[in-house]
Design a protein that fits this description.
Blueprint lengths: L2 H10 L13 H11 L11 E6 L2 H19 L8 H15 L3 E8 L4 H7 L5 H13 L1 H19 L3 E2 L9 H8 L5 E10 L22
Antiparallel strand pairs: 1-2, 2-4, 3-4
Length: about 220
């Protein structure tokens, strides 16, 4: 593939929030997940797991859980300064409700042997700082993110439109119960997908000079 072809693919992909009332072939979603599995991942552990939800009742349950959780948070007195932002998050439940299919992204819980090594030295400042640095960088989360990005590009090539959402994680417990996600998995992201019913313009992007520091 020539670079200009790849550049066009990356720049033409959009986050889609409106879809046609048309079922998405399960095989297309499985193919996107398969390709996501080829993305770089920490230690090739592939510690993620994906759930495909195309049942309309389940989709509505998930959407309602997200909306209810956001309305609960919006009702807190401390949330008054954030009402505008929270209203947008409440609308995310409505977005999900209309999606033909959802892909839930999870990764396996539990610590690595290296984590246990660091835990064995709770009074060692170097060990504590290293553990905190690893917690913030979170290899499992990075691996899942790489898979998601590959999936979004695959969906776009298939003529599908998807949306990478982390907001629904605010209703993590409720969604895990609805879907039946076991305790050894953590729900971390949600991707509604379908045939696009909109063609949003490309939002502005920062110039490469704004997001890059070159050390010479």
């Amino acid at each position: 593939m020539e670079l200009d072809v790849f550049e066009a693919l990356v720049k033409k992909r959009r986050s889609i929030r409106k879809w046609l009332d048309k079922k998405v072939p399960e095989q297309d979603i499985l193919k996107a997940i398969e390709l996501g599995g080829y993305a770089p991942n920490g230690g090739n552990s592939q510690s993620y797991h994906f759930y495909i939800v195309s049942n309309e009742t389940k989709i509505k349950e998930i959407a309602l859980a997200v909306e209810q959780k956001m309305r609960l948070i919006a009702s807190w007195p401390e949330a008054a300064p954030l009402q505008g932002q929270l209203e947008q998050l409440i609308k995310s439940g409505k977005i999900l409700e209309k999606a033909p299919a959802l892909v839930l992204v999870c990764f396996k819980t539990g610590e690595s042997s290296f984590d246990h090594l660091l835990d064995s030295r709770p009074l060692d400042e170097n060990a504590v700082k290293t553990k905190e640095a690893l917690r913030k960088s979170n290899s499992k989360l990075q691996s899942a993110a790489a898979a998601i990005n590959t999936m979004l590009l695959a969906f776009h090539i298939m003529g599908l439109g998807a949306l990478w959402m982390s907001g629904p994680v605010r209703a993590k417990e409720e969604i895990e119960k609805i879907v039946g996600i076991p305790e050894n998995l953590d729900f971390i992201a949600l991707i509604p997908v379908g045939y696009p019913a909109e063609e949003p313009a490309m939002p502005p992007r920062k110039k490469v000079e704004e997001i890059t520091t070159i050390l010479k």
